[in-house]
Write a structure and sequence with these properties.
alpha/beta, D-Maltodextrin-Binding Protein, domain 2, three-stranded parallel β-sheet, 8% strand
Length: 135
Amino acid sequence: MSIIDLQSVMNFTFTTRKPPDGTWGSVNENGEWNGIMRELVDEKADISKSLDSLSKDCKTDTGFLAVSDFTFALIRAQAVSFTHSLSRVHHRIFLKRTDGKFNLMAYVEPLTRLSWLVIGIFWLLCSPILYLTAK
């Protein structure tokens, strides 16, 4: 369900716009936010949400929506509230059978042995490094 569908069902209006300085938002040396974060902190925007299909300007009754693909960061979370995603996207790979038989190796065959060797070495090296640095 898109925001347009919710708008008709829940009877509300909204506006999207870019922040005046065109940035996502970071803290400057004075401790002040810029970009979308500034709009949220100053309550000029009500929410920030990724709305891929919206590109027109729309206005809420109380303020503006800050529309973005917003990255969660601890410093941002201390200034504004974040919510969890309501939906998840699952990707699948579909391969056409050329001979009509099921092939368990269909996902492995496109890569050469050298490619698998490099992937294996990378996995063996990165796993312990990530484990040790996470402690």
